[in-house]
Design a protein that fits this description.
The protein is mainly α and about 375 residues long. It folds into two domains: about 45-205, no CATH class; about 215-378, no CATH class. The chain has 17 helices and no strands. The protein has helices spanning about 1-10, 15-30, 30-40, 45-65, 70, 80-95, 100-130, 140-150, 155-175, 180-200, 225-250, 255-265, 270-290, 295-300, 300-320, 325-340, 345-370. α4 (about 45-65) runs antiparallel to α6 (about 80-95), α11 packs across α17 (about 345-370) and α12 (about 255-265) packs parallel to α17. The longest helix has 29 residues, at about 100-130. It is globular and about 50 Å long. It holds the Pfam family FUSC_2.
């Protein structure tokens, strides 16, 4: 036996290991740039874990909301999965705690805030229909104000303001009515469960980073007003201008412009300008990439959903520090998921780019002319 092993060892070529290692390196070489880029944008993989949590939370909520046993008998039950999934997704984005109990508490509150925003729209928007053709959009103005103002209460307050606006935005886009309040309540319960479970499983592997759009504002403002109040006023003023523009001209998707205006407002005029530039650049990259993938919506929709999930992971990785990359990833995700859901109008999908441009420009105007905040006060 020893002679046989010795002969086998003698007949082995020492270069075989080198060839095998070289072959493995050659196979991995095409993915090396991607791996290097991921490591640069997310050293330590902590944000990648959060990105996976976002996708998991959305998937769990959407799946539970699609079950007939849950959706049966609910008004607007067909929308339950999408509504619950969106509540869970954005609650997971806004949550930024380090311990599981605190995260679970915040996720529950954030889902409730989204439901409150949707319910607020359902109850009050019908009263605004007689004010103007774009009357229901006036509800989004209140949400835009809360996104800025509630930053004075820390990260959780900023997340609550964002969730109220997102709830209003979802109710507006899904045309929810007062009769859909039971559906909203069930969506909140599903979203809370779906967002908490992945967070409990991720445990200490996550190290949350504060998202710039949700970071607390400046410690002081101007003219006796807090900086957060001024930021809310700036966002609401820009949103109101977009509502008036839509009423006069008829924009394709004015809610996209309102959203852009709301989330670019920062703690100073120069900060707002920087965020607008990054958001526009990111959107102008993400939208064409998504339009190039539209054929997959017909021939390989499952592949398109997988690519969208990966884009949301990139979104979570980039959001704290690379707002441009995050905006590109989200614009891509939005367009491809709309296409996978049956919306194939290229002019409508391309409107995402120029609606973002409109919202960004009005955000800059509001930040410069409405009680402008100075960087020196940070």
């Amino acid at each position: 036996m020893n002679a046989r092993n010795a002969k086998r060892a003698w007949t082995m070529n020492p270069a075989d290991d080198d060839h095998e290692a070289a072959a493995m390196r050659a196979r991995a070489r095409p993915f090396a740039p991607v791996a290097g880029w991921l490591e640069r944008i997310d050293p330590g993989t902590h944000r990648r874990i959060k990105g996976l949590r976002l996708v998991t939370a959305y998937g769990i909520a959407a799946s539970l909301g699609s079950l007939q046993d849950i959706a049966h008998g609910l008004p607007g039950g067909a929308l339950l999965g999408a509504l619950a999934g969106s509540f869970a997704l954005w609650a997971s984005v806004s949550e930024a705690r380090t311990t599981r109990p605190e995260s679970s508490r915040d996720l529950s509150l954030l889902c409730i805030a989204a439901g409150a925003g949707a319910a607020m729209f359902c109850l009050l928007a019908p009263l605004l229909q007689h004010v103007a053709r774009a009357g229901p959009e006036l509800m989004l103005v209140s949400g835009a104000f809360l996104v800025g103002y509630l930053k004075r209460f820390g990260v959780l307050g900023a997340g609550v303001g964002s969730q109220v606006y997102i709830g209003q935005l979802l109710a507006y886009g899904m045309h929810l009515a007062p009769g859909d309040l039971p559906t909203i309540a069930v969506a909140v319960a599903i979203a809370a469960l779906a967002s908490i479970v992945p967070r409990m499983l991720s445990g200490p592997a996550e190290r949350p980073a504060t998202v710039a759009a949700l970071a607390p504002g400046l410690p002081s403002g101007r003219h006796g007003m807090s900086a957060e109040f001024i930021m809310g006023l700036q966002a609401a003023s820009g949103a109101l201008a977009i509502v008036a523009m839509n009423d006069a001209l008829g924009l394709v998707e004015s809610s996209w412009a309102i959203t852009a205006c709301t989330y670019v407002v920062a703690g100073s005029a120069t900060g707002t300008l920087a965020r607008v530039r990054r958001r526009i650049v990111g959107t102008l990259v993400g939208v064409p990439l998504a339009l190039a993938c539209l054929p997959l919506a017909v021939h390989a929709p499952l592949v398109l959903w997988c690519v969208a999930a990966f884009a949301m992971i990139v979104y979570a990785m980039a959001l704290p520090e690379r707002y441009d990359v995050a905006c590109a990833a989200f614009a891509f995700t939005l367009i491809v998921t709309m296409a996978a859901s049956g919306t194939h109008s290229v002019p409508l999908l391309a409107a995402r780019a120029w609606e973002t441009l409109i919202g960004g420009v009005l955000g800059i105007v509001a930040a410069i002319f409405i009680f402008p905040l100075r960087p020196g006060r940070e």
